[in-house]
Specification:
The chain has 330 residues and is an alpha/beta fold. The protein is built from twelve helices and seven strands. The protein is globular and about 50 Å long. The protein starts with a helix and ends with a helix. The structure holds thiamine diphosphate (TPP) and magnesium ion (MG).
Length: 330
């Protein structure tokens, strides 16, 4: 990645971090309700992979921990926040909420609550790409625990059988809610599990964006060139509990401290400072500017937007009312 791109990505990552910290506050203030799963600590995964791909052109799908992937695909921050605030200006008209962010215009294919649900959807999207003959790829980000769902194996088998252009990215944060991976999973190294389907794979440090980017470049190139699926395992850690309702009492403080020292944003920031590309003062100024932007553009927009009207309730239930279905996928 060129220095200018690294500086841009540093800003994007910091924006995503501050955006989500603000979501946390808004939830505590009861402005956001329902489920809320946050991504701080894991940012280098989404940013490193998508920087190596073509967000907005390639299709991206993920779990309920979906705000940051949507941001990187280009879904406007204010429309995501409005969605979390359940407002009509939200990206799903305020009817979806945190777990169901969906941005057709940016080829962000959601946000899914069911663990493992996106595995076959990603393969289906890839099958569609192949049938149409496009050069897009389908990128599926999911957690480590999702790999214990039967649908993981069914999907990867078909993806390889048909050599579909799917990049599976495992964000291995070592936990599925409160269960540590070695208590739920027979094979700890997730990248090894796909050898049974003859899918090439790699495992890299998910806290270092340069390493993620480098590995993702190879993976994306493999998939885009028609060689079939690829599986990338990124070793990472979430700073907060699984969701807002998780008291996060099951992890050793020492473990949390250790991962806290490997913050993906600080790693990139310090590398850029060392290379003379940015100063600490510039970084702080950027941070202040981001915080302001989030208040004045994002939060204000969400707060001032109307709630969905009652007429909207059944408008998107049937496909015949849905202009997107009739217009076809973009
Ligand atoms: C089919 C299904 N089973 C169980 C759940 C409850 N559940 C929600 S998240 C989760 C753990 C998933 O962990 P992982 O895939 O590692 O993702 P992470 O949350 O760590 O990002 C479980 C069991 C669910 N949402 N869907
Ligand atoms: Mg996990």
């Amino acid at each position: 990645m060129k220095a200018a791109d690294k500086k841009r990505v540093l800003r994007e990552m910091l924006f995503a971090r501050r955006f989500e910290e603000r979501c946390y506050e808004a939830y505590v203030e009861r402005k956001i309700g329902g489920f809320l799963h946050l991504y701080p600590g894991e940012e280098a995964c989404a940013f490193g992979v998508l920087e190596a791909a073509r967000p907005g052109h390639d299709y991206v799908i993920t779990s309920y921990r979906d705000h940051v992937h949507a941001l990187k695909c280009g879904v406007p921050a204010k429309e995501i926040m409005a969605e979390l605030f359940a407002r009509e200006t939200g990206v799903c008209k305020g009817l979806g909420g945190s777990m169901h962010i969906f941005g057709v215009d940016h080829r962000f294919m959601g946000g899914y609550a069911l663990v493992g649900g996106p595995f076959p959807l990603a393969a289906g999207i890839a099958k569609g790409i192949k049938m149409k003959g496009g050069d897009e790829i389908s990128i599926c980000f999911l957690g480590d625990a999702a790999n214990n769902q039967g649908v993981f194996h069914e999907s990867l088998n078909m993806a390889k059988l048909w050599d579909l252009p799917t990049l599976y990215v495992c964000e291995n944060n070592l936990y599925g809610i409160g269960t540590r991976i070695d208590r739920s999973t027979a094979v700890i190294d997730q990248y090894k599990r796909v050898s049974g389907y003859d899918i090439p794979s790699a495992q890299v440090d998910g806290q270092d964006i340069d390493k993620v980017y480098e590995a993702a470049q190879l993976a994306v190139e493999h998939v885009r060139s028609g060689k079939g699926p690829y599986f990338l395992e990124l070793m990472t850690y979430r700073y907060r509990g699984h969701s807002m309702s998780d008291s996060n009492a099951y992890r050793a403080k020492e473990e949390e401290r250790m991962w806290g020292k490997r913050d993906p944003i600080i790693i990139l920031r310090d590398r850029l400072i060392e290379a003379g590309e940015i100063s600490l003062d510039e970084y702080s100024a950027m941070d202040t500017e981001i915080l302001e932007e989030i208040e004045t553009d994002v939060i204000k927009f969400a707060e001032e937007s109307p709630e969905p009207s009652a007429e909207l309730l059944d408008k998107y239930v049937l496909a015949e009312n849905d202009p997107w279905v009739h217009g076809g996928a973009k």
